[in-house]
Amino acid sequence: MEIHDVPDSRQTGSTGLEFWFDFASTYSYPTALRIEKLAKACDVTIIWRAFLLGPIFQSQGWSDSPFNIYPSKGRYMWRDLQRVCNEHRLEFHRPSRFPRNSVLAARIVCAFESTPWIADFIRQVFSANFVLDLDISDPDVLSDCLRLLGQDPETVMATATGPSAKSKLRISTSNAQKIGIFGAPSFVIGHEMYWGNEHLEKAIERARQTSP
Q: For residue range 32-63, what is the model confidence (pLDDT) as tens digits?
């Protein structure tokens, strides 16, 4: 499997911006590919927060993505997402299945969130889903993403399927609910929250302004 190269993810910064995302989230895709370059320019550090939208939607009485429940909203979203990707010159192909199960990929992020390669992995998974139309719930797809980054899939998968990684993802999703996150992408700086790809620049500016 060939997955597009991604830029080096290593960075330093003085201010933290929490980027809350679900790999199944449509608008999280352009955000994930844009956020690091913008944050670096402002000396803002990204804190990658993978979580699951499913439990949050269920708490609101939804058994599926609202883009599937409300067809007119879904039609608008897909057209708008294409416009967003065109604007930022990002490749995009509508997934043949939506939403895809993102549990295993999110567990990998939660288990390895402090590693220097995790941002690259996140972009690889988003590209697999929204560019290559691959099933990101498939361990083989995620293993290919890991190999491209020089990581050993067997070792990573063993950790990601263990009790600690499962617990970390449950806690992350619970924390998202506690701080009032209702969708993705969301950005949190201290007690301030922004929602939506269109507010990424505002969130980064807020983080820059609150730098010590």
A: 999 999 999 999 999 999 999 999 999 888 88
Amino acid sitting at position 88: H
Question: What CATH fold (topology level) applies to the domain 15-209?
Answer: Glutaredoxin (3.40.30)
pLDDT tens, position by position, 154-175: 999 999 999 999 999 999 999 9
Distance CA 155, CA 183 (A): 32
Q: How many other C-beta atoms lie within 10 A of the C-beta of residue 56?
A: 18
Long-range Cβ pairs for the range 132-139 (8 Å, 24+): 132/1, 132/3, 132/93, 133/93, 133/94, 133/95, 133/96, 134/1, 135/97, 135/100, 136/23, 136/100, 136/101, 136/102, 136/105, 137/100, 137/101, 137/102, 137/103, 137/104, 137/105, 139/104
Both tokens assigned to 51: 């979580």
How far is residue 110's CA from residue 172's CA, in Å, rounded to a whole number?
A: 8
15 pLDDT tier (thresholds 50, 70, 90): low
